[in-house]
Specification:
The complex is a heterodimer of chains A (423) and B (647).
Chain A lengths: L3 H15 L7 H8 L5 H5 L2 E7 L5 H4 E3 L3 H6 L17 E2 L4 E3 L7 H5 L3 E8 L7 H10 L11 H7 L11 E3 L15 E2 L14 H17 L3 H18 L18 H14 L6 E6 L14 H20 L6 E7 L19 E7 L7 E3 L19 E2 H13 L4 H4 L14
Parallel strand pairs in A: 1-8, 1-9, 5-11, 5-12, 6-7, 6-8
Antiparallel strand pairs in A: 2-4, 3-4, 5-10, 9-10
Helix pairs in contact in A: 9-10, 11-12
Chain B lengths: L1 H22 L21 H12 L7 H8 L1 H10 L5 H7 L9 H7 L3 H10 L7 H4 L1 H14 L5 H18 L3 H13 L7 H4 L2 H9 L7 H9 L2 H6 L17 H19 L17 H10 L9 H10 L3 E3 L8 H9 L1 H6 L3 E3 L2 E3 L9 E3 L2 E3 L4 H13 L2 H15 L6 H13 L4 H9 L2 H4 L11 H11 L3 E2 L2 H10 L17 H4 L2 H15 L6 E2 L2 H4 L8 H12 L6 H11 L2 H12 L2 E3 L7 H17 E3 L8 H12 L1 H4 L2
Antiparallel strand pairs in B: 1-3, 2-3, 4-5, 6-7, 8-9
Helix pairs in contact in B: 2-3, 3-4, 10-26, 10-27, 14-21, 16-19, 17-18, 22-23, 23-24, 26-27, 26-29, 29-35, 31-32, 31-35
Classes of the chains: A alpha/beta (423), B mainly alpha (647).
């Protein structure tokens, strides 16, 4: 196995070839002189979070197909696991729950026990507003609007070391997501190619400008600008090592040509470049299926196909890096048990989420989904929230990133963890 | 005696004339005794003017520092406080944004949200709800036709006009302080486009609630925000209702029917789809606004209130709601109109513009907030009393003063200054102008710990550059995209805290590179619809050398700053003649953005994205007249330089 240390060193030398910026950049020179700066990379793990905005219908993604109440409540949306019926059957996971057929990409990792599912997950705050529910889930404080930081930003602060590189926490979004709000260093960027000094069609000008900027920032009296300037140019050079634009995924991985696929592809690049990525964030949109959500085909099927294929492309692409990565999905709430009058479902309460990784105690469906008789439904209409999202997020953060300071990660929360991870 | 009367009358007349006369000299009389202590702090008049402009405008325009020196910083500031400078050409330009003159009711009728349009179209039988399955394009076309036929426009167009006008005001208004304060208070009383329920009401929120009160009394501002649809929806108070035990008894059926209708109205407004109307709506107390009004708007998180106070305040504010305004099939509104304001009033309703106090949702019991008792049956008035009380607390005076000082002095303003400002806040009944005067009048404002100590936000950087270069902005939305890229998506900040006001928040690696790229793009004319004429800035005198260009333009763009270091660092690069040649050569071959026409096309451009656009709008051409590529490079580097990131 190529040691990361060796890789970094050779990367440093390769930078000389870039030349225009002159000499070995400060960061790498420092790195070469100091062993300790390498060591954090070696053991660090990456948590990739995917927010499914709009509220995924957990009952369609992972259907309790033996539940006749559901069948009755969804005459046009219910899908069966029976192979004899018309259409593609659900993928029977455990005799009770069936995976949507468009998520067939997930089946192998579930069988290999790398993919865990939590059903009945949600927030204790019963708001059915997308905005409020996302806000609460991302801040990690379901009853407090004024929390200035997001839970993933707090996670960065709890990693037990300073952010070692500009890429410790990266959100592949154009604007900083609520989850990343806060004082700990984090970056939002929608395209890694933007991480450079640009003058379209004028590389000479761009290089000269870059040199001027680097010089100016190196000499400025403002500590903040000087430090961040240094990091910016280091980040730029780190990315220049690789041809970001013409990246070829490994192991024949094929990313869907979608926003999520593109984000995860870039996250894979960062992970494989060993630039110190520990917390990554991506978004998936279009889950608010009030209208004709479809069954084996249609909007919902397209969405879950994109989600599962994107995640699996990342997984395949990661290859030997798989041990270091856990991917977790989240969505603000679920949808009504009953289908509505327009072939869709409305805002509900609990949904389900997916956790993928070699540390995951997978192949199981966690949580408590009672028969969907009206007396078991929340407010007489929705799949009840039986697992607080924080009990899963905290477990993943602890076992994967060794963050066990729950009262900082999720202030005001005193519940028990649901241990979805091994060990 | 007669004579005495005559003299007396003459004196009164003279007094009147004098008063009338001075009334036309904005500010000069009211603040004529001001004398800012900048000399004691060791600043020259030029440096003082530059500092003042860096704090109370979006950046100095060429020659503005000299102007302020000439007028005198005190007089300039007084005029800015009065905010009566003519803005005719700006207003003329803004006139073309027709959506910005609409009332909230008109906005709802003309710029409905996607979900509302769909609901209407389905109801009218125009859109076949099954078509989405088979043919998405046909379905979209159907909806688009429906919108056109009914004169409906997409909400995104409303927001585009709104964002454009903010950028233009910030760049071109002569009443810069008012605009800066508008941004300050908007951020303080933040609402977000991200929250679908309130986004439509945000343009009117800034126009009618924030801007007119930005230099007024804090209490008025607080009350106006509390009663605005944007805030009522953003922090959910519209839905908050009291405990039924405390509901007013009696007056029977009519009230119950109305209460029922009103509930349905709320539900209908938020249901994306008809089915949800039948859903059980969670009724009861919502504490969100009550908590944030104390934590973020007035007392501050350490302001000494308890959870009990929050709950009690929430009860005081139950029934503070929005007058139904969705025109289409709104039973609640029809009923309200039929009853009429007079009758509503006799039943305890208060209808003021978009605001509605609904007594049927109000908790009528006794409450205590911060030790202040509200007797049972206080109705609407107790809410006003509560907010007035909050506006006048010591904690509020300190909290607001600190926030102002953080915005205008430094990220960590001295406590001595905060205390002075807080005293004025209390003594002058929360008069924002007076608090600002106290701040500028204090030595702390002019100290070395304040000058150039703030980091420009991306918005300030972009607008400041536009002002410094006298750029001609025809497509403001292009600047919005850059500002977003640099990390400040204005009006989209999700949390009620508003954007943090500190350098560390703005300066991170990705954002910093984008700032540099912004400088290069702007100076070299590569931002479509934003035209710069660098030669004109120097009266078309072409600098003799790159070195000369650096010296001249640094002074133009960074007036009143020590520039030796910047110039020294950049000089070697500029003295490499080969490099210069290469840049010119490369630049000559480089496509430059031509002006894309400003029109509704801009909207289309946004939708089709850059890909389609590049093909159309970039043609290979020489650098635009006067913008010598070397000069553009120099100016771009100055704008991206660390010195220019500070103010």
């Amino acid at each position: 196995m190529v040691s990361r240390r060796g890789f970094l060193k050779s990367g440093g030398l390769a930078l000389l070839g870039v030349g225009l910026l002159g000499g070995i950049p400060g960061f790498l020179a420092e790195a070469a002189a100091s062993e300790k700066i390498f060591s954090p990379y070696k053991k660090k793990k990456t948590l990739v979070c995917i927010f499914q905005r709009g509220a995924m219908d957990g009952l369609m993604a992972v259907t309790p197909f033996t539940d006749d109440y559901l069948k009755t409540a969804r005459p046009n949306l219910f899908m069966s696991a029976a192979k004899s019926g018309t259409g593609t059957p659900l993928i029977d996971l455990d005799g009770r729950f069936g995976l949507h057929p468009a998520m067939k990409a997930f089946e192998p990792v579930f069988r290999e026990k790398r993919l865990g599912i939590v059903h009945g997950i949600g927030s204790p705050n019963n708001t059915r507003s997308h905005f409020d529910a996302q806000d609460y889930m991302e801040s990690g404080t379901p009853f407090s609007k004024g929390t200035s930081s997001g839970w993933l930003n707090r996670a960065v602060g709890l990693l037990g070391h300073d952010a070692l590189t500009p890429f410790t926490a990266v959100s592949m979004t154009s604007a900083m997501p609520r989850s990343f709000y806060g004082d700990n260093p984090s970056v939002a960027i929608s395209n890694l190619q933007d991480f450079t000094i640009q003058m379209r069609g004028n590389p000479t000008g761009a290089n000269m400008a870059a040199k001027s900027f680097e010089d100016l920032y190196d000499q400025t009296a403002s500590g903040l600008l000087k430090q961040t300037g240094k990091e910016s140019f280091e980040a730029m050079k780190m990315l220049q090592k690789t041809d970001v634009k013409n990246y070829t995924p490994a192991n024949g991985a094929v990313y869907p040509n979608s926003a999520l696929g593109n984000s995860l592809k870039q996250i894979a690049q960062l992970i494989k470049m060993d630039v110190g990525l520990e917390v990554a964030f991506a978004e998936s949109n279009g889950w608010d299926t009030h209208f004709n959500q479809g069954t084996e085909n249609g909007i919902f099927a397209r969405n879950v196909a994109d989600l599962s294929s994107s995640m699996m492309a990342l997984w395949t692409d990661l290859g030997t890096y798989q041990d270091d990565v856990t991917v977790m999905t989240m969505t603000e709430f679920g949808r009504t048990v009953h289908q509505n009058g327009t072939g869709g479902t409305d805002h509900g309460r609990a949904s389900c989420n997916f956790i993928l990784g070699n540390d995951v105690n997978g192949g199981l469906i966690y949580g408590d989904v009672k028969p969907l008789a009206i007396e078991n439904l929340e407010d007489g209409r929705d799949l009840a929230v039986t697992t607080d999202f924080r009990s899963v997020f905290s477990s993943v953060a602890d076992k994967h990133l060794a963050i066990n300071n729950d009262h900082i990660l999720f202030p005001d929360w005193k519940g028990d963890r649901v241990n979805v991870m091994r060990g | 005696m007669k004579k005495a009367v005559k003299y007396w009358c003459g004196f009164v007349l003279l007094l009147c004339v004098f008063t009338v006369f001075t009334a036309f000299l904005p500010g000069y009389s009211a603040y004529s005794d001001l004398k800012f202590p900048y000399k004691k702090a060791g600043l020259t008049s030029e440096q003082a003017a530059a500092h003042l402009l860096s704090r109370f405008t979006y950046g100095a325009t060429p020659g503005e520092v000299e102007e302020v020196v000439k007028v005198g910083p005190e007089k300039w500031f007084a005029a800015q406080l009065d905010a009566q400078m003519p803005d005719d050409s700006l207003n003329q330009f803004l006139d073309k944004y027709d959506a910005l003159k609409l009332s909230n009711t008109e906005v709802v009728a003309q710029y409905p949200k996607g979900g509302q349009v769909l609901r209407m179209a389905v109801k009218d039988g125009v859109v076949n709800k099954d078509s989405v399955k088979t043919d998405r394009k046909a379905y979209r076309d159907q909806l688009q036709n429906y919108m056109q036929q009914n004169g409906l426009k997409p909400e995104q167009e409303l927001l585009r006009q709104f964002i454009n006008q903010k950028i233009l005001r910030a760049a071109y208004s002569n009443n810069q302080l008012q605009e800066v304060m508008t941004s300050f208070w908007f951020n303080h009383f933040n609402v977000s486009v991200v929250k679908n329920d309130c986004s439509q009401f945000i343009p009117a929120y800034e126009r009618d609630v924030i801007r007119p009160n930005a230099l007024g009394k804090f209490n008025d501002l607080l009350l106006a925000t509390a009663k605005s649809p944007a805030m009522l929806y953003y922090l959910d108070n519209f839905s908050s209702s009291g405990n039924n035990d405390n509901m007013q008894a009696g007056n029977g059926q009519a009230r119950r029917r109305l209460a029922l209708q009103m509930q349905n109205t709320d539900t209908a407004r938020f249901a994306n789809m008809p089915k949800l109307n039948k859903a059980k709506k969670t009724q009861g107390l919502n504490e969100n606004y009550a908590r944030e009004v104390m934590e973020l708007h007035t007392l501050g998180v350490d302001g000494g209130y308890t959870q009990q106070d929050v709950t009690q305040a929430a009860k005081v504010l139950t029934g503070w709601s929005v007058y139904p305004m969705e025109a289409y099939g709104n039973a609640g509104q029809k009923l309200m109109n039929r009853i009429g304001d007079d009758k509503l009033q006799s039943r305890g309703f208060i209808h003021e513009g978009d605001f509605l106090f609904n007594p049927n949702k109000h908790d009528n019991g006794e409450k205590t907030v911060l030790g202040h008792q509200f007797a049972a049956g206080g109705g609407y008035d107790e809410g006003v009393q509560l907010l007035t009380m909050l506006a006048h607390q010591q904690a509020t005076a300190k909290f607001i003063s600190k926030k102002l000082a953080t915005r205008f002095v430094s990220d960590n303003p001295p406590q001595t200054l905060i205390d002075k400002m807080a005293r004025t806040f209390i003594n002058k009944d929360g008069d924002i102008k007076q608090v600002l005067i106290t701040m500028v009048d204090a030595p702390e404002f002019w100290s070395a710990a304040a000058v150039r100590e703030k980091t420009k936000s991306p918005f300030e950087l972009a607008i400041g550059s536009v002002r410094a270069l006298h750029a001609d902005v025809n497509q403001p939305y292009q600047l919005f995209n850059w500002i977003n890229k640099m990390g400040e998506k204005i009006y989209y900040y999700q949390a009620p805290t508003g954007f943090p006001d500190k350098g560390q928040y703005w300066i991170n690696t990705g954002a910093l590179l984008n700032r540099m790229n912004f400088g290069l793009a702007l100076a070299s004319g590569r931002i479509p619809g934003v035209k710069v004429d660098l030669a004109a800035l120097n009266n078309h005198h072409e600098p003799e050398s790159a070195q000369a260009a650096l010296t001249i333009y640094s002074k133009l763009i960074l007036p009143g700053r020590p520039l030796d270091e910047t110039i020294k660092r950049l000089t070697p690069m500029l003295n490499d003649p080969k490099l210069m040649e290469k840049v010119d050569e490369a630049s000559a071959k480089t496509p430059v953005a031509t002006m894309a026409p400003e029109s509704s096309n801009e909207m289309m451009d946004q939708q089709t994205g850059l890909k389609g656009k590049r093909k159309n709008n970039f043609t290979a051409m020489q650098s635009t007249a006067g913008n010598n590529s070397m000069l553009a490079q120099v100016v771009g580097v100055i704008i991206g330089s660390p010195e220019y990131q500070r103010r």
